[in-house]
Every structure is written in C-alpha cells, then in structure tokens.
Amino acid sequence: MAKVSRTALVPYSPSQMYALVNDIPAYPDFLPWCSAARVVESGEDYIVASVEIAYSGIRQAFTTRNTLQEGEKIHMRLLEGPFRFLDGHWQFHSLGGEGCKVTLDLEFEFSSRLMSLTFGKMFNKIATTLIDAFVKRAQDVYG
Known about the structure:
This protein is of the alpha+beta class. The chain contains three helices and seven strands.
C-alpha cells in the first residue's frame, strides 16, 4: 500500500484553505490532471464527489465520500474507482493570526497489479504534488 503525507504552512486561515479543497467543481480550473470533477450528492456533513484524472493520455475516474468538519478536516473514503483501498485526510490547523498548517495524508492501493503498473506512478506523482497545487490556488484566489 502506498502512503503519501505532505504538509504546508500557508499565510491563509484554515477556513480559506478548507473552502478551496472542498470546492470540488473548481478542480479542473487549476489541477492540470483533472479533466472533470463534480459533486454527486451532498448532505450537512458530507459530500460524494467524482473526479476524473487525465494524465499522459490515460483517463481514470474515482468517487469518494468526503466527511466534512467545517474549516478543520475532510476525510475521503473510496466508494468507486480503480483502487482496492483509498483513504485520505486533509487537516487545517490554525497557527494564530491568518496562518495555518495544511496536512494531507493519503493511503491507496490499486485493485490489481495491472492497474498499479498502469496508474501507480501517475497517481503517486499527483498525490505528492496535490498540496502544492492548493497552495498555488490559494495564492491566486486570496493574493
């Protein structure tokens, strides 16, 4: 099973960073590998989201149920896609003032060896650069 853990310190509030990560329909606007993203279903404390990845001519979609703690945490759990297992957490911790610490922890395993060989390196690269993409998005949106 692959694990990715990334952290960034940013000059934005936890609420601002949470809002960017939770704005799933905007993903194709700033994530170059994301060809489509939509909210399938939503409730008071959850979202079911579908994301399509297009990278080096390869397309793959997956759906997660994201449990939300407003401004603090998003827990993603696989519902459907090319994985045997996918579980992730975004956490947003205030550093006082306007800054916060953003943490992304992901664990994933593809459903087969063939899927792992085909998509493994691609998804690992996406996962390891994801937090950087959201930091850049925050700079573009919030200045």
